[in-house]
Amino acid sequence: MTHTIWTDLSGTDFQVTTVDAGGVPTRSLQAGNGEAVIFLHGTSGHLEAFTRNIGDHARHYACHAIDMLGHGYTAKPDFPYEIPRYRDHLLAYMDAVGIESAHIVGESLGGWVGARTAIDAPERIASLQLLCAGGTVANPTVMERIRTSTRRAVATDDIELTRARMRLLMADDEDATEELIAIRHAIYHQPDFVANIDNLLCLQNMEVRLRNILRPEQLAQITAPTLIVWGRDNPFGEVPEATAMHEAIAGSELVLFDECGHWPQHEQAVQYNEVSLAFLAKHSG
Question: Which of 20, 48, 130, 263 is most buried, by the most CB atoms less than 10 A from its CB?
Answer without folding.
Answer: 130
